[in-house]
Amino acid sequence: SANTVLSAISHVSWYHIRNLGYSVGLHAGHNMAVRGMQRLSPPPPQKQPVTMAILREIRRRCNFQSAHDRVLWGAAVMGFFFLLRQSEYLADGTKMKPYIIQVNDVQFLSTQGVLARSIDKVAAVSIKSRGSKSDQVGAGATRTLHRSGSAWLCPVQATWELVQNSRMFSSNEALCATGTGKVLAANRLAKAIKCAAAAAGADPLTFGTHSMGSGGATALFATGVDRLTIKLFGRWFSDAFEQYTRMNEATTRSLAEQMERGARSHVSPVTLVGASSSSNTELD
């Protein structure tokens, strides 16, 4: 694809800058060829966001007598609520990033904002992200969420249980640890999401681990949270986050009604001054 070609060329350019002191670029003819490839190449497939039905199905399929399934469910809830990137909390096979979220990156807070030591005192959870693919300078960020009010879908409860599980292996293990030095693999969560999507009547091929962050962003968008809040909470440094949100039934249900109401509240620039009210009545 054109993106693959451009990625390879960027490495060549970087090598010249790093070792020879100058950059190289594409010939005009090559530029034209790449643009042609971009027009002919299909757009990259975007993963669909998880829905409440899919989340329920993931939970229903978990065996909570199994430590692995308890971690899987906790990871799903964390990914959804904190809009996490895959590398921040999951392993790629057996490999994990140095900035993967660990137990010491988590703090539980009481209603007074002080550290809480028991789950009945916990009102909120703060998670520090020490890096990500989009955080090129490693600045890190901390995000805090309070209890959701749900008995089964709550970031505070899920994170608490993950911490208790990880502490069985070491004092500062990865948050989604399944053993000492082992972390839940991304393909395990992806498989669970796909199976749940199929059971919910959706196409499993359009879902993956990215569906968790996309689902969280879409849920925020559907409830009217402004785009700046979504961007800041999701730690996006550009408007690229908008590709993660989707229009769903909740956001489109009243659009026609709102548009009609908006049209009534604003005078059109071509509306004749002093037009008779009878013409407006006929259109009501």
Key descriptive features of the protein:
two-stranded antiparallel ribbon, 12 helices, 284 residues, DNA recombination, DNA binding, DNA_brk_join_enz, three-stranded antiparallel β-sheet, 7% strand, mainly alpha, hpI Integrase, Chain A
Helix/strand layout:
Layout lengths: L1 H19 L7 H13 L11 H10 L5 H16 L3 H4 L16 E4 L14 E6 L11 E6 L8 H12 L10 E3 L2 E2 L2 H14 L10 H13 L4 H7 L15 H4 L2 H11 L11 H7 L1
Antiparallel strand pairs: 1-2, 2-3, 4-5
Describe this structure in words.
- The protein has 284 residues and is mainly alpha-helical.
- Among the domains are: 2-40, no CATH class; 52-104 and 149-212, Intergrase catalytic core (hpI Integrase, Chain A, Orthogonal Bundle), CATH 1.10.443.10.
- The protein has 12 helices and 5 strands.
- The protein has helices spanning 2-20, 28-40, 52-61, 67-82, 86-89, 155-166, 186-199, 210-222, 227-233, 249-252, 255-265, 277-283; strands at 106-109, 124-129, 141-146, 177-179, 182-183.
- The strands form 2 sheets. It has a 3-stranded antiparallel sheet, with helices on one face. Strands 4-5 form a two-stranded antiparallel ribbon.
- Helix 1 packs antiparallel against helix 2 (28-40).
- It is globular and about 65 Å long.
- The N and C termini lie far apart (53 Å).
- The relative contact order is 0.13.
- Residues 260-284 are annotated as: Disordered.
- Residues 274-284 have a biased composition (Polar residues).
- One of its GO terms (molecular function) is DNA binding.
